[in-house]
Specification:
heterodimer, A: mainly beta, four-stranded antiparallel beta sheet, about 50% strand, B: mainly beta, about 0% helix
Chain lengths: ~110, ~110
């Protein structure tokens, strides 16, 4: 069975600095998709970024980028130029080829002004 | 509507009662997911559907929980003989096959008193 592990329950970063959130996963499959979601206090889950496992190039969306290491089964999220609005819970998610999606337990990110 | 709709947004019920939670996915999305989220935790997988059939119900905690999607669109999560431990936010999401992310509803906050 696939699992997703986020080992940092909480992190803090100074406004305008860079922070990296960790995610590892366990799978025997070679074809899958990975996502980072943001959940602010409003509870609405918002997609931050996605990565297709067959693509070697790391995905980037403005200030958000990933470091995808397929052999190590690692998928970390880097947030550059952190802003107050980035404060939220961040969840790493794995989608298998049968479309089942599982989530990690999350990392609460605090932005310090 | 354009997004995933969940009703009710809040439900308070007495221990031992039966509840139904409804999810209306994005039109055309074949996959529909149910998750349970406790405060400060990640979405816990319960069940997901491909069309009308449950593709994986391994996350349902016990036989008091049941979900249906009779016409391949709207889904209902049913909880019998509710217990205080069932109190949580129940999230529904839908997705297309492959690289498409899951789109989430706002959730139903269930409180068992």
């Amino acid at each position: 069975a696939q699992t997703v592990t986020q080992s940092q329950p909480e992190m803090s970063v100074q406004e305008a600095e860079t922070v990296t959130l960790s995610c590892t996963y366990d799978t025997s499959e070679s074809d899958y998709y990975l996502f980072w979601y943001k959940q602010p206090p409003s509870r609405q889950m918002i997609l931050v970024i996605r990565q297709e496992a067959y693509k070697q190039q790391n995905a980037t969306e403005n200030r958000f980028s990933v470091n995808f290491q397929k052999a190590a089964k690692s998928f970390s999220l880097k947030i550059s130029d952190s802003q107050l609005g980035d404060a939220a819970m961040y969840f790493c998610a794995y989608k298998n080829r049968d479309d089942k999606i599982i989530f990690g337990k999350g990392t609460r990110l605090h932005i310090l002004p | 509507g354009a997004g995933v709709s969940q009703t009710p947004s809040n439900k308070v019920t007495e221990k031992g009662k039966y509840v139904e939670l409804r999810c209306d996915p994005i039109s055309g999305h074949t996959a529909l997911y149910w998750y349970r989220q406790s405060l400060g935790q990640g979405p816990e997988f319960l069940i997901y559907f491909q069309g009308t059939g449950a593709a994986d119900d391994s996350g349902l905690p016990n036989d008091r929980f049941f979900a249906v999607r009779p016409e391949g669109s709207v889904s209902t999560l049913k909880i019998q003989r509710t217990e205080r431990g069932d109190s949580a936010v129940y999230l529904c999401a839908s997705s297309l096959k492959g690289k498409t992310e899951a789109f989430f509803g706002q959730g139903t906050r269930l409180t068992v008193v």
